[in-house]
Structures
1.
Amino acid sequence: MEEKEKTPAQLRQEALLDDRKNGYDRLTPEDEAAMQSYCEDYKKFLDAAKTEREAVDEVVRLAQAKGFVPFTRGMSANPGDKFYRVNRGKAIMLAVIGDKPLADGVSIGAAHIDSPRLDLKPEPLYEDSEMAFLKTHYYGGIRKYQWVTIPLELHGVIVKKDGSTVKVAIGTCPGDPLFTVDDLLPHLGAEQSKKPLGEAIPGESLNILVGSRPFKDDDGSDRVKLAILDILNQKYGLVEADFISAELEAVPAFRASDIGFDRSLIGAYGQDDRVCAYASLAALLETERPAHTAVCMLADKEEIGSEGVSGMKSAAFDTFMSDLCDAQRVALKVCYEHSFCLSSDVTAAYDPNFASVYDKYNAARVNYGMGFCKYTGARGKSGASDASAEVVGFVRRTLDDAGVIWQMSELGAVDAGGGGTVAVYMAERDIDTLDAGVPVLSMHSPFETTGKLDCYMTYKGMKAVYQAH
């Protein structure tokens, strides 16, 4: 059948309108196969990296398998060299040295590997009514009601008085016990139900139930607490005072899983921001001798303002970059002013169930690809780096040339709230920076949802940035 000639209006529509389409209408068979393989590896990463420390350990394992070696001050940095440096076990920086000198700048992918959770207080263990609990202080922006009556695991490290360190991961292996935070039964919850959603579960009530069996043959007080300490002492050599120098995190005991009859989505804890961290890492691991040096920065503490020695505000990144620059006798400021950073963090996916808090014309959509955010911040762009038109144009061109499916996005309606990323701290270093990442449903909840297509396209977009000329 002969194809009808397009009308002038149709031709003008094609030429002028930005016709956003679902990514599956544009996905090639080659990308389809690569997407499925990539997402299976990503799910394995999520299950192996429930905390920032575990994420660093897994990144080191994957990087070493690809030929990356630790970078120490004074080493040479030649094209094709692959380096990494761990910052205090909680953040990591990686680089593939390019053909062009560092004076021409570097291409940076920056993401964070911490996620909202429940941290144990320094003196957490107590007994009440012959039940043992651990007191917590929540980390990051959580909705507290979501953290009750779900299964929890306990991960982290204990540094004992003699300086030795014990790693803890309870709940990951078959047969391990799990933990939970209690909630009030509906039969007695009439007064609780009258409270606003954000006040129904006070932070001080997020106490983790860890036992109820008293220590045998003991008539003293706190018999259940003693029994718990006895178990911890036998397994880890722990005494109660060791909690003071421990970092223990309670995280949801959920495995990364396919979501939906069509398996088009991934559900898991910690996808903010390990979905972008893994994309940034996986893209770098597949980068061989780029034009510009490619750098991957995976930071800690973003969920509480990027503070501390392992956060993006720390000088640790500058020290790493300065050491690389010294290897080529290049001034750090010269490198920075010619560099580009993609701050790879998640954005809010439009949810029709809560449509009033989005601008549907500017919101990211599931399955529409990698989401650019020209600015984040709150309300009047407060706290945003607000990328320039030139920077957005460069990324548009780079991703289009690489066949990446992408979309523009905004983190909710103007007066609905907002959020921040590490972009502002990169921009403060005189580095052109743009936010871009995966749209997420149920962000900051114990079980977040992402689209497989968006996960893969973010990886593909990061790879294009690392390889850009």
Note: The chain has eleven helices and 23 strands.
2.
Amino acid sequence: MAKVKSRAKAVKPLFREVAVSGDGRDITRDFGGLMNALLPQDSVLRDRGGDYTLYEDVLRDDQVASTFQQRRMAVTSAEWGVRPGGADRESRMAADFLLEILNQIGWDNVTDKMLYGIFYGFAVAECLWGQDGRFVTLEALRVRKQRRFTFDPFGRPMLVTPGEANGLALPERKFWHFHAGADNDDDPYGLGLAHWLYWPVFFKRNGLKLWLIFMDKFGMPTAMGSYPANATDEEKRRLLAALRAIQTDSGIIVPEGMKVELIESSRGGQVSYESFIDRMNAAIAKVTLSQTMTTDAGGGQYKADVHKNVRNEVVKADADLICDSFNRSVGAWLTAWNFPEARVPKVWRRVSEDQDQRPIAERDRMLFEMGLRPSVAYIRATYGEGWSEAGRAG
């Protein structure tokens, strides 16, 4: 039977982006305001009529500060290093060069500041390049305030100045930035933890105000004065002054015929206020750490282990985001300038929970005695960096 030749032509791939925001056809964007800058799509910022100072105020909350510090320190306290992008000599030299630079600029400190991009939705750092002989070096990474930047329709950061509210275009390969939290790639501002933390903090602060008023009423009953029907305006003023003096003086006098008494608070509202504040604190911890048990006691050991594992996954995701973003930008730029033939080295952090490796080592020993030899790659993945084959260096 003869084969029937298909007349359908093969569809060639289209090598350009189509659904971009920069051409003015993005229906989710309002291009009627700032002509050259995108506006954040964060509904809290938009509806509350503020900029990122609104979220800077959220950081003043004690629970937010504590839990977010815990999340950042879990990343910065983890071991880090630089892995060559390839086995060739040029790639190893590029990795050693980058490791030396990161040690000099204080990689943990830079990481800690860039992690605020998780809170606000994006982060921007300026690269201060230097020259050392034939090498381009990185003398410092200066992390800048989020509200100093806008983004153009193509997602490139622009610097806001007193004379340029829309923002000024920035030089290429000068600023490292990333965004996080958004459910799409069209919003370079991202969607940070602050978006979700704003309302719990807002409700908590208002609840604390009411709690303080209640405690004031409970600790110092409200004074009530009674005056005769024929009291003059002057006598009424003297009675009111006497009532106010109760708040500060140990003794007062009132005109004859007028009566002063204290209205005691009879409602036991302390538990309801306290539970409300605890509920808001739990919400803040859940948003920041994806669980509550590493900040508040309670639950059995099994639940505690589950919650700790959840937090570890969040921390690992943060570390991977920072490292991957750096590798694709600053790390790639330095490598291209100084070691053009090398593959880009990879900055990494080990944030997985330490485990008892004795059972694994015992199993590997038994396999070795059976004639199986583990690879160097397996040894490094299982027991960490710093291993090489016996009799060989590096």
Note: The radius of gyration is 31 Å.
3.
Amino acid sequence: MNKFICPYCYGEHDLRTTSMKCSFNIQGQSGKTCIGTVQKEPGGWIPQKDKVRCTKCTAAKKIYYCDVVKKEIPREFLEDPQGFSVALVGAKASGKSNYIGVLIQEIKRKMAPRFNCSLSLTTSEESKMYYDRMYYKPLYENGVVVDATSKGAIPPLIFPLRFWEKKGAKSTAVLTFYDTAGENLDSDGDMLINNRYIPNASGIILLLDPLQVPAVREKLQGKMPLPEQNTDTVEVLSRLVQNIRDVKNIRGKIKTPLALAFTKIDALAEFDILGEDSVLREESQHLHRGVFANPDFESVNIEIRDMLGSFIGGELEQMLKNFETYAFFGLSSLGGIPQGKIDIRPCRVLDPLLWLLAQRGYIPKAKK
């Protein structure tokens, strides 16, 4: 397979035509020749007429570049040409930055040993440095919440997730996340400019802040600090749908799986909005069993759906009919309302990602 999805522009590229260099005299200037008869262009680029032949060469390493942003494509994206790109979407203050910072650690510490996989943080040095500075150090070294994402372009976080089978073979899901600023969802124009990755993503995680729901805010008024109200959840989803339809020219159902995740479930539990027997008060069975446990998933899906019905009404459900596959989740990234130095106690942070991976067959499902 010669085509792959670029983790930077989320566009589809072809190895036979995309910009490339090779490790043989990669810094060479015009007039320098590599093994064989290929004469490189200034900067060491391989001429278009020689690309097909160069892709078959076994004497040197090939380095491919995105033709849009001219950045090197990680090798793992060529092992799994379709990749597994996750679009992380949510309005301002929905908890995206804290979620993604904790999610990476949950994959390494909890998911990896249970699902026989490993997460690499070294494929993209830019991703590793950005993650360490913006997420890991604030959360896990300084004990403070992650700063809100700045509006505008940010680098993607690219982390290969390798699943090891009994015979030593492996399959790789190259996870890419964009922690786009909530303000980028405030207009259709911003959606098209800043969120071009959404239409080509393998799956979408839409984070919903329950503290933005009027009925929830009314119950919590005076009991805890509430964030300023911002873009309505249904409005965010409406723009998301229109963005995908405009870019992909889709008239029927959108096939990209959509995970709708209520964040800050800890606040609902602390102030008894969640029932005492709520399944959301406990960690999921997926990690305990090392498979995607459908009964646990269905329990959460039903509870959140009922909650949405009583808090928001049918408008969101009608909007969700645009998608062929969607599901509801509840999670807490921090495990409690931040007060002073935080003690991170995440709950169900992995559930949306595990569901998306199960949809693509990366992890097994259990019906019982």
Note: Residues 148 and 359 are 31 Å apart (CA to CA).
4.
Amino acid sequence: MNGLLQIFLPALMALFCTCWIHPYILKVAKTKNIVDNPDARKLQRIPVPILGGLTVIFGVLSGLMAFNLIGEPYNFFPLFTSIVIILIIGLIDDMISLSAKVRFAIEILLVIYLIYTTGYQLNDFHGLWGVHQIDNWFSIPLTVFACVGIINAVNLIDGVDGYSSGYSIVSCILFGAMFYTLGNICMVALAAIVAASLLPFFLHNVFGKLSKMFIGDAGTLSLGIIFSVFVTTILSAEQIEVELPDNLGLIPFTLAVLCIPVFDTLRVMSARLLKGKSPFSPDKTHLHHLFIELGYSHIGTTLSIICMNLFVVLCWFLAFMYGLSIDVQLYMVLALGLLVTFIFYPVVKAAIRKKSRLYLLLRNIAKLTRGERKGFWLLAQRLADRSVSDTSQE
């Protein structure tokens, strides 16, 4: 079958299944009172259903099954089972709150399971510092550390409407483009399936009033597993079957795509440790909380952070196109990651305290994101809520 059809048809199936299942899962969440209640740390004012992750993953799994029916054979079973397990763990966490240690242990076991069932691991530096393939004694612990870090970084960006889903859609597009460059059509299809599954949820999450759901830990943990597979597939020596440019920095690329979630998580956790707190203790010190404090709307916050992340990816791409070495690409991405998180956050917090010109500028930009919800916004809201109204009448 044509390669584009192998990508397009499963993604279309994922999109359809997510749209179809959303109102039914929303109805279950409301009926069973499976909601996220407001508190001093959270930004919503009313209880919001939290089974959005179930709708997204239903679409992803449907798309994977469609791909295996019409596409070239590919062993998605390890990923399939890992997603189902972490989805169940996330649902339990959403409803009764598991301890961080239990979740952490399960994430480690799942990553080890994926390493030994798929063979994907961070075992090739692809020329970074002159290093190529590395031994298992180093690559396996490195893979576990990196993947568990990615899972938790993605899990912690679920703070404002549209952020986790919008960021994940953009990341899937970027990963899909890299997989296309590497000639891995199966992983391009996976990226397209995930993006297509997220799109309806994103629209309901941002524009919906009656149809609004949060993605919850079930969704973000599952996305974290998927992004971990993206990264390990790109950086696994066995997966590169095409001739690549000598200065194509695969490690800098993956770090650039995951830049703000990873660096912001490191910043928040290190700050908590310096204060003598648990790195997993909840607070309101993430980057998205800073934008909300400045007066940005949820969608304004989401778009601002995504644009900041895309700026880092663009800088990496320009560095690659202008022939800079892989080492320089990495150092540049690291520097930009520190700039947009570790440096940006305290500088803006200081500006807020002093009511400086920077603060006034950011406040004026924030006002542009908080326009009256009319016209296109109301039309999008009616379209998003229509499916809920139709289902309630069944």
Note: The radius of gyration is 21 Å.
